[in-house]
Amino acid sequence: MARVVFTANLERHLSCPETTVSGDSVREALDSVFETHQQLRGYVLDDQNRLRQHMVIFVDGAMIVDRIHLSDVITEKSEIYVMQALSGG
Amino acid sequence: MSSQIHIATRKGLFRLDRNSNGWGIGCYDFEGAHVSMMLHDHRDGMTYAALNHGHFGVKLHRSNDSGENWEECAVPVYPEGAEIGADPFSTDGKPKPASLSEIWALEPGGADQPKRLWCGTIPGGLFRSDDGGTSWQLVESLWNLPERLQWFGGGKDHPGIHSICVHPKNSKHVAVSISCGGVWVTEDEGVSWHCKADGIRADYVPPDQANDPNIQDVHRLVQSPSQPDTYWAQHHNGVFRTTDGAHSWQELSGIQPSPFGFAVAVHPKQPDTAWFVPAIKDECRVPVDGQFVITRTTDGGKTSEVLTKGLPGAHSYDIVYRHALDIDGTGNCLAVGSTTGNFWISEDGGDSWQTISTNLPPIYCVRFTKT
What is the pLDDT of residues B23-56, one digit of tens each? Predict the structure, then answer.
């Protein structure tokens, strides 16, 4: 099971505890999280289901490449960090 | 004590003069223009104002008569082929051409380099002029480093060089800091560069990358004029200081009421004395408990005093940007301007503050005229 960790700054707005999920891509992992935390989706993804411009996701230490489809591959041991990009001001 | 201050704002450039009645606005230029940075070059008296016209781009103006007359001079231009990283939603992931977005730092060279200016820009280029802004050259030795492409925006969409420290005793020694790209130092006038941010840490990346020097979001870097191996850094995640020329940095836990902020000023003669404008960290970014304060340390950051006399009490939500706190050459006079358009001066090292205006536009940069 991959581990998903959200920036603590999101906790100001809604609950987003660290969780473990299954899936083969970042998209599948996040969809799994959003099944039980539906409101969280809109804080991480935009209305086109893309990663919000000022959010970043790291998988095993590397920033994901596909911010549109979130197709970056994950493994059962992956660590996924959903963070704020500081570019947001 | 300095008797003149410039204030660069969202809606023009103000000059304040001190006369027998105290401080007052003496001049207002570039009405309505976004003035991102200004510099009064104490070596030849030239004043520079960097404008960001939005629709019409970035411009640089200079005046040799204290703002009576201004002339437009050259702006830094990225050479053909210069590239920045791909846009977030780029489908091909390819870099795109670099283009000047903002002048974010402007500093004079050393006394032995009469017309030398350094300019830090967004998106992350350092430029040098040897003719007082008539022409500019990109410092390609820094721009071409592979690490530069890993820099990312902090507060802006693209990385920016906001602090340039020219060593007061050796003008070939220059330190720059980037949001977000750490601290880079040259000791040979820009021939070679080294990233020197060991000991600075970041909370905004996964824990195993927290100590990567090249991703650090130093909000502001200042160098002690009297002990140049001492630098102070107000960072996104705290206050850090080095006393060995940036070889190693120590995090300072004594800054109250919060270690978050943008601005820092160091005393010109006392390297252990510095001032900060704390706020609640990160995305909240308001003064702690809604009370605007300024904090001073006199022991290198071990402890600090929260200064409130003359500053607003409860329900004040001013934030001070990284260039909007300055200190004069005596160390007695400080000036600070806020995003809310409030402007204060202290003439006793921060013990007490006078409100000069509560009606200015959002303030980006405050600088004393130094001799």
Answer: 999 999 999 999 999 999 999 999 999 999 988 8
Q: B4-82+97-368: which CATH number, 2.130.10.10, 2.60.210.10, 3.40.718.10, 3.10.180.10?
A: 2.130.10.10
Nearest CA in chain A to B153: A87
Q: Which residues of B135-171 are buried (b: 16+ CB within 10 A; e: fewer)?
A: ebebbeebbebeebebbbbbbbbbbbbbbbbbbbeeb
The backbone torsions φ and ψ at residue A18, rounded to the nearest 5 degrees and listed phi first, read -55, 140
Interface of B with A in 261-290 (CB under 8 A): 282-284
Domains (ranges, CATH) in chain A? 2-88 (3.10.20.30)
- Give the number of A-B residue pairs with CB atoms closer than 8 Å: 50
Interchain pair B179, A79: CB under 8 A: no
Spatial strand order in the sheet of B264-266: B264-266, B274-276, B294-297, B305-307
Mean pLDDT across chain B: 95
State the complex-level ipTM: 0.78
CB B214 within 8 A of CB B124: no
